[in-house]
Predict the structure.
Amino acid sequence: MKAVGFYRYLSIDEAESLLDLTVSVPQPKPHDLLVKVSAISVNPVDTKQRSPKEKLEKEPRILGYDAVGEVVEVGEQVTLFQKGDKVYFAGDVTRQGSNAAYTLIDERLAALKPEKLSDVEAAAMPLTTLTAWEALFDRLGIKAEKDSGKTILIINGAGGVGSIATQLAKLAGLEVLATASREETIEWTKRHGATTILDHHQSLPEQLERQGRQTVDYILCLHDTTRYFDVMQEMIAPEGKICSIVELTEPVSMSLLKDKSATFVNEFMFTRAKYQTDTMIRQHEILTKAAHLFDKGELVSTVHQVLEPFNAATMKEAHRILEEGRSIGKLVVKGFDENE
């Protein structure tokens, strides 16, 4: 089958950073689905995984996590799906990915594709939806019945995770403040449910104060945690909660968090699959619930750009766009039919 992968970890401008490959169709393990891919989404994690390292792979590494496709074969212990089902999923960072004509996914990490979304619209959503859902409801512990009316600040509101986190937070009854600076990102962020926009190029606490607030109840940090850490400590309410999806790059002082009895937690969407936790099935459940919300129109796809066809040249362009750091929403790649 056709795939895009690499042997060496290189800058995206290098000729061998991503290659057109022909590899064998993988064989499903007991809980696996073999999926014929129809569309994929590209995420910052893809570029981080590919970034330059002193390492050489003996077998080609195939990246890609978000995907939509048809189940063409199931493992002997699969109970949730059958051949012919259309599924969407965010993958497993420890396995070969979805940048291929066929890919494997553990059934506990997949769900039936939202019926009212196209393959392109659906491919944009699994990784960011899972990340946002886990961050808001599993890590921060937000519950609509007790937290409606509270405030949340989403740092990087126009990004892939921010675009769906804003929608989910609004559905839970929260008032959403988000950072954005360009005209198009401000418009995009407001369209998805943010009521107050803060410019991340200016002092966030000062802008918050001009809005008549001193603090917010929750903060979801989706960009450069180290840069924003002191600011978040200042802005979080006493007994408030902060969640970040971005690793710290240097030590920070947490003294003000201690003084406020505030919580800081991390969210990494791949944790459950990577460590084979007892809660892996939760991702199937989240994606299933999200599919119902997409079909009801209560959530909308955040696809913003589509590239085709699927090949190494297209994937290089997708990685370049993400590495520029100015993308809005999600970037999807389609055009798999000619790559079987």
